[in-house]
Write a structure and sequence with these properties.
By secondary structure, the protein is an alpha/beta fold. It is built from 19 helices and 15 strands.
């Protein structure tokens, strides 16, 4: 910059003001030789010309000897994890130890800096086709759940062309959450892109093979087959290959979840996140386009493959053996099944929010999934047959003590037991079995009506049920030679598996 200004001043004084070289030298305080040198040049001293004036210092023979070694190490680093590469000091120490290098560390630092700048990766601007690709990644954030800080995991998907986002919160990153996220994402987008780009997650990939090949998890292959899309996986430690979603995860955390949202349930949070996605899409524009994200997404919908008529079962299958107390164990928690399956092998379908138990191609139990540890979740209906044989057990049965059993049932049983002892236990269990014929709501109403009479007997409840249902419900005793003594006055009706769980209000369909 100084040379350029000096060149300009000399040329101006000579050609515009007409001063002699001596006068110019005197006025500018420079030598006549300097004035003569600049006046003899036809072009300004550009950067290139200045570099010619000042010779660059050549490397010594000792330094030249190790430059090819440095280049090779830096080239090899391009194949490795970015957080585990050579530093300039590490290169210098290796040269000293392995190649008896005698030069200075400062020279090596300068050489490494220049070489790294020279081989820096260059990226290509991309323009994705509508309906072709989505990118996926997990993120983490904190929220206030029921008054307490809770770490959650964000399932984040973005359509590469329209930039439309989908976010769903889970309390873990297990396989069932991974699969469930895609089910909700495709339903949110209104269709399925051709391919998805994601990391080599354990929930998707069993083993990384050569190149882009992967041995994928069977359930994830099943998801792809159901929705007909192809998964593409990034190279290990190459998150930049899905740069759009990488930036999206941080953007969501900073803009949707600051300050911490306060919610009572994860479902409430997910509704908030869905609304936030729509709001963001309506106000932001697709880069280098005139349309908003929402407008571009409306165009992209017609390029997506249609959703299949049947929803994918986003669950993990687990083979379980029912123990002698009619319980199976899933993630340290125990869930009840009908007592007639004790000792048998069954399948547990583990969803994000529920556990469904299947035996002989039929659903035999369904429970809300617990995320606590070492809990026992039981349904009273599962134990009614065995309680008929052991009626006194109703007094302390875990399934009868749960909050799912209406309080009127517990009050009525207490009175029947006080009046009739063990016979009262047995008759009360017979009343509970009636819910399989008339439904839980009607049985509850019958107990409430009977309680008003202050007569706590089987016959009173039975009569009220007949009035409520407008039908005569009678049970004829079985022949004595076919019935245990304790069941002489009761006929056990055939079980209806579809009504399991009605006692607690759970729908098993």
């Amino acid at each position: 910059m100084i040379e350029m200004a000096q060149f300009y001043n000399i040329k101006f004084l000579k050609e515009v003001e007409g001063l002699s070289q001596r006068q110019i030298a005197t006025k500018l305080g420079v030598s006549r030789n300097t004035v003569s040198k600049y006046l003899s040049q036809n072009a300004a001293p550009t950067t290139v010309l200045r570099k010619r004036v000042y010779r660059t210092k050549e490397y010594s023979a000792e330094t030249k000897r190790v430059i090819p070694i440095i280049d090779q190490w830096l080239e090899d680093d391009q194949k490795h994890w970015k957080k585990q590469k050579h530093t300039a000091i590490k290169i210098y120490k290796r040269l000293v130890d392995e190649y008896d290098f005698k030069g200075s560390a400062s020279n090596i630092r300068k050489i490494v800096a220049k070489r790294k700048k020279k081989i820096q990766e260059v990226f290509i601007p991309l323009d994705f086709q509508l309906g072709h690709q989505f990118q996926f990644d997990w993120g983490e954030a904190d929220i206030i759940l029921q008054g307490r800080t809770q770490r959650i995991f964000l399932f984040c998907v973005q359509l590469s062309a329209s930039r439309m986002r989908f976010v769903r919160a889970y309390i873990h990153e297990k396989q069932e959450a991974f699969l469930d996220g895609f089910v909700h994402a495709f339903e949110f987008f209104g269709g399925i892109p051709t391919e998805g780009l994601l990391d080599n997650l354990k929930t998707a990939v069993v083993k990384v093979l050569q190149g882009r090949d992967r041995l994928e998890q069977e359930t994830f292959v099943g998801l792809q087959a159901h929705y007909v899309f192809k998964a593409e996986f990034c190279n290990p430690a190459s998150g930049n290959e899905k740069g759009r979603i990488e930036g999206t995860v941080g953007y969501i955390r900073r803009n949707a979840l600051v300050p911490y949202p306060e919610v009572q349930t994860i479902e409430e949070l997910n509704q908030y996140l869905t609304d936030w996605c729509f709001k963001e899409a309506s106000r932001t524009h697709v880069p280098n386009k005139s349309e908003t994200v929402l407008e571009m997404w409306e165009k992209e919908k017609s390029y997506l493959s249609p959703l299949p008529p049947i929803r994918f079962e986003a669950c993990k299958l687990l083979s379980c053996k029912v123990n002698k107390t009619s319980l199976i164990t899933v993630d340290t928690n125990r869930y009840s099944v009908p007592c007639r399956f004790a000792g048998q092998e069954v399948w547990a379908k583990i969803f994000v929010d529920r556990v469904i138990v299947v035996a002989q191609n039929q659903v035999i139990a369904e429970h809300v999934r617990s995320y606590e540890r070492n809990q026992m979740i039981t349904v009273l209906d599962h134990y009614l047959e065995i309680l008929l044989k052991k009626p006194r057990a109703i007094r302390d049965a875990h399934a009868f003590q749960t909050t799912e059993v209406p309080d009127v049932f517990k009050r009525f049983h207490l009175k029947m037991r006080e009046q009739e002892g063990a016979a009262g236990d047995r008759k009360f269990i017979r009343l509970l079995l009636l819910h399989r014929d008339i439904g839980m709501e009607r049985l509850t109403n019958a107990f409430l009506e009977a309680e008003k009479t202050q007569v706590f007997r089987y016959e009173v409840v039975h009569e009220i049920i007949q009035k409520l249902t407008n039908q005569d419900i009678s049970f004829q005793p079985l022949p004595t030679d076919q019935t245990p003594i304790s069941l002489l006055d009761y006929k056990v009706s055939k079980s209806n598996i579809e009504q399991y769980g009605q006692l607690t209000g759970v729908n098993n369909k």
